[in-house]
Design brief:
With about 130 residues, the protein is mostly helical. Helix content is about 50%, strand content about 10%. The two termini are about 20 Å apart. Strands 1-2 form a two-stranded antiparallel sheet. It has one domain (about 10-120): Winged helix-like DNA-binding domain superfamily/Winged helix DNA-binding domain (Arc Repressor Mutant, subunit A, Orthogonal Bundle), CATH 1.10.10.
């Protein structure tokens, strides 16, 4: 699978920051996978996203979404209407990023099936 970061993303503007560093930065936030799963499923408005997980605050949501936009994983669409409406969607690069997360989930499932029953509580929030 070949990755092509958007030209204005953090990765393409800073060659020393590679995909591994991007993964580390994004996945270091405990909300990232949850938010990507929600956006992928069509929940893309901030007021709805913040309600999808107990403990997720508007401040943390905005910080996480800003980081995802910075890396070109998510794009923000602002509609000029009253009241203003904002939506977030996966970019083509973000869709590739999510495919990697899908592969990680598949590895987790494989790990669970090959290991002891104590790993049964390892669930990914990234189910479609």
């Amino acid at each position: 699978m070949e990755f092509s970061a958007p030209p204005d993303s953090e990765i393409s503007s800073n060659p020393s920051l590679g995909l591994v560093a991007m993964f580390e930065d994004c996945l270091g936030c405990k909300w990232t996978i949850h938010l990507l799963a929600q956006i992928r499923c069509g929940i893309n408005r901030p007021s709805t996203l913040v309600k999808t997980k107990k403990g997720l605050t508007t401040k943390v949501l905005n910080e996480c979404l800003a980081r995802l936009i910075q890396y070109g994983i998510v794009e923000k669409t602002t509609y000029l209407e009253l009241p203003p409406r904002v939506e977030y969607h996966l970019t083509p690069f973000g869709q590739e990023f999510v495919e990697i997360l899908d592969r990680m989930e598949a590895l987790q499932e494989q790990f669970k099936s090959n290991s002891d029953p104590s790993t049964d509580n390892l669930k990914s929030p990234f189910r479609k």
